[in-house]
Structure formats: C-alpha cells, structure tokens
Amino acid sequence: MRKGGRRNGSCVRCGADLETTDEECFACGFNPRSGGLKIAMTMLLGAVSLVLLAAVAVYVAPWAGVFLVGAAFVLVPLAAIVLIASFVVTPGRLDKVWRR
User: Fold this and answer.
1) ∠ CA 54-58-59, rounded to 5°
2) Is 28 helix (H, G, I), strand (E, B) or coil?
3) What range defines the domain where residue 22 resides?
4) Are 38 and 56 within 8 A, CB to CB?
C-alpha cells in the first residue's frame, strides 16, 4: 500500500480511481489521515457520556458514579493527546482550519 491509503492509484476502501494528488476519495469520502481525529472525537464523546451517566448512576449506586467520573477523568487527557498527535502528524490540516 502506498502512502495516503492508496493502492495502485485506487481507493483502499471502495477501489475508485484516484489522482496522485488526491487526499480524499470523492466516491466514498475516505481519508486515511482523519483516523486520529475520529478516535479523539469518539473518546471525548465517550467522556461526556460517562459523566452524564454518572449523574444518573449516583442515585442508584454511588460507587458507580465515582467510578464513571474517574474513567471520564482519565479519558479526557487521553483524547487531548490523540487530538494533538493527529495534528502534529498532519500539520497541513491546521492550514485548512484557518482558511475556512
């Protein structure tokens, strides 16, 4: 597999033909460099879900609420690390953010 998730000028996911300058497949929208962002956003969504669940769980089982808030406390810094690492790996992404 070549750099950028391409195999012989075609998309890895759907097999559509790509030009050598394309970063994203126009047929299926696959971008191999967006994996870190998806992981970080999923982790942040999970942390928010854990805190909301802890607010409800405190009334049923207080120990479960403490456990869920502790898990969210660990998950938020990990998500921040993954998010920062994904921007460090692809610095061109920051330019796209500021252009919009």
Assistant:
1) 135
2) coil
3) 1-30
4) no
Q: What is the dihedral of CA 41, 42, 48, 54, to 10 degrees?
A: -160
Using one digit for the tens of pLDDT, what is the confidence trace for 23-62?
677 777 777 667 777 888 888 898 889 889 988 888 888 8
Tokens of 95: 């330019």
How many domains are contained in the chain?
2
Distance CA 32, CA 56 (A): 38
Please indicate, yes or no, whether residues 56 and 88 belong to a single structural domain of this protein. yes
Say how far apart CA 53 and CA 70 lie, in whole Å.
Answer: 12
Same domain (yes/no): 69, 82: yes
pTM of this structure: 0.59
Conformational region of residue 7, where left means phi above 0, alpha means psi within -120 to 50, and beta covers everything else: beta
Residues 13 and 41 in one domain: no
